[in-house]
Amino acid sequence: MPIVTGRSMQVPSPGAPFQLTQKEFPEPGPGHLRIKVQACGVCHSDSLTKEGHWPGIEYPRVPGHEVAGIVDAVGPDVPLFKPGQRVGLGWHGGHCNFCEPCRRGDFVLCENQLISGISFDGGYADYVIAPANALALMPDELSPADAAPLLCAGITTFNALRNAGARAGETVAILGIGGLGHLAIQYAAKSGYRTVAIARGADKGPLAKQLGAHVYIDSTTQNPVEELQKMGGAKIILATVTSAKALEWVVDGLGPAGKFLLVGAPDGPVVINPFPMLLGRRTVAGWPSGTGMDSEDTLKFSALTGVRSMNEVYPLEQAEEAYARMMSGKARFRVVLTMGN
Residue 321 belongs to what H/E stretch? Predict the structure, then answer.
């Protein structure tokens, strides 16, 4: 397992432009492996690294937590993975196994959790060295560019929905058709839920139906709460948007014992009327992404059912342009870097 040399697009300091560098990627240590990166998604959470918003982050740092590639080298004490296997690495960058959440098997809430592209250098590079317990095996049916966004936007929405408590046939509403929402609609429909998409503008209706939504609600001309209540209320409302006001306008569309599930970070506090929540035993909850095994489940389900991300693809050297495109909110709908490996 010799040292290898490759490119990386690192952030030298908070807010600085990306810097293309050649660096050495050493042999992986115990419990770690080295991935030859083929594609890496560009996620809004990468701004935590790019702009220095994550407390204590050390620079220079290479962002990227939607990593699809091939195992290049395996360190000691890694019994599962072998060179040549196709793997994915997401936001969850490994867990300690010893804190209380880990001892209870709730690894995604590990008190010492590592985060890819924040705790260690991520996927805007030719290689990544990562803990083996963070990885997912990747199905052959998914190309690297198809798989990469599923390792954050995909797992976040798929994992939230499958753990939310809705049964097949019940009404699940997806608020927003963007990077998260366009995947959430597909997962909800493929899971057998009566899928309702909510967004702004009549122009999004055909896309919502194409993605699998049974009903589209245009919030510029329709009242989402009234429309959802005509259906008996939603069992789940999955909120993928960042507008706190949009969340407030829709939350009362929940049915009895319904759950309002946040996977997108709102841009401010959300004001909620407590009486419908109390009288209807409704709840508001958040959901993080998931572990490597959750990512593997997401990839398998996507391969099996044909869920795919809509991507705009850039070469690694254009990371600055790709990042700006993602931050502009104009991408349809995920941005992916490819390495040519």
Answer: helix 319-328
**Ramachandran angles phi, psi of 332, nearest 5°:** -120, 95
Take residue 338 and report the two structure tokens written for it. 């490819």
Cα-based distances in Å from 102 to 106, 112, 133, 257: 5, 9, 12, 30
Q: What is the CA radius of gyration of the chain?
A: 20
Residue-wise pLDDT for 220-256, tens only, equals 999 999 999 999 999 999 999 988 888 999 999 999 9
Judging by beta carbons within 10 Å of its beta carbon (0-12, 13-18, 19+), is residue 88 exposed, middle or buried? buried
Domains delineated in the chain: 4-152+289-338 (3.90.180.10), 155-286 (3.40.50.720)
DSSP of 206-250? HHHHHHT-SEEEETTTS-HHHHHHHTT-EEEEEE----HHHHHHH
Give residue 109's Cα distance to chain centre. 16
Say how far apart CA 148 and CA 154 lie, in whole Å: 9
What is the tens place of the pLDDT at every residue in 98-138? 999 999 999 999 999 999 999 999 999 999 999 999 999 99
Contacts 24+ apart (CB under 8 A), 271-278: 272/248, 276/252
